[in-house]
Design brief:
alpha/beta, six-stranded parallel beta sheet
């Protein structure tokens, strides 16, 4: 077997909460009188909340205290969590569910490597709360992608070395993180634009050709 473990980014790979993130950031930006659109939102993919806010504030006229920034981050997350309540098992694509089940039967170690602090909430909503062998998320790390910390932690949690794992990513920052950590990487979605990944997936089930 080429790999012993697979580490998945969550948002944009297992499921998509992009629209909820966009709505929450848009509301936060609107309240501050800052222009925000889908193109700016795409720059937030795979980066931490704090770094995302700095990108949003590039169009802010004036200085902002750390206290105010902290308030905005809490408010944005509250809006996002309210929107997440709409999620259900219907948000888990059938192709994704079937592929994950096949990978499980192959006895591969499966982990999540996500910068999100809400990863466990999302997994519970889509019915995968107890499916993965490990969940490495934004509550456990100090550095966001493109730093490899979240993937290195995931590999450690499933008892494997980076070279024994395949990372599945949809964000360029995530691909950079995987490569920085010494992992092979398969790209899907936006990450297909990157020249760094060893593999490119047209569909989620294409993972089965790699294991």
């Amino acid at each position: 077997m080429r790999f012993e473990g697979i580490i998945f980014d969550l948002d944009g790979v297992i499921c998509s909460t992009d629209e909820y993130h966009y709505e929450a950031w848009k509301k936060s930006a609107d309240d501050l009188g800052i222009y925000f659109d889908k193109q700016i939102n795409n720059r937030l993919r795979g980066v931490s909340r704090g770094e995302s806010l700095e990108i949003v504030l590039e169009r802010y006229d004036g200085m902002m205290s750390q206290e105010k920034k902290a308030e905005i981050l809490i408010s944005k997350n509250d809006i996002y969590l309210q929107l997440l309540q709409k999620m259900s098992t219907k948000d888990l694509d059938k192709d994704v569910k079937k592929t994950l089940e096949i990978l499980k039967k192959k006895e591969l170690k499966l982990a999540i490597g996500s910068s999100s602090k809400n990863a466990k909430i999302i997994l519970k909503k889509i019915g995968l709360e107890n499916f993965f062998d490990a969940i490495s998320d934004g509550t456990m790390i100090t550095k966001s992608k493109p730093d490899p910390e979240v993937f290195l932690l995931a590999a450690d949690m499933i008892g494997l070395k980076p070279q024994e794992c395949l990372v599945i990513e949809d964000a360029i920052a995530g691909v950079e993180a995987a490569k920085a950590g010494g992992f092979e990487c398969a790209a899907i979605g936006d990450a297909l634009k990157s020249d760094l990944p060893e593999y490119k997936l047209n569909t989620f089930s294409d993972i089965l050709k790699l294991v």
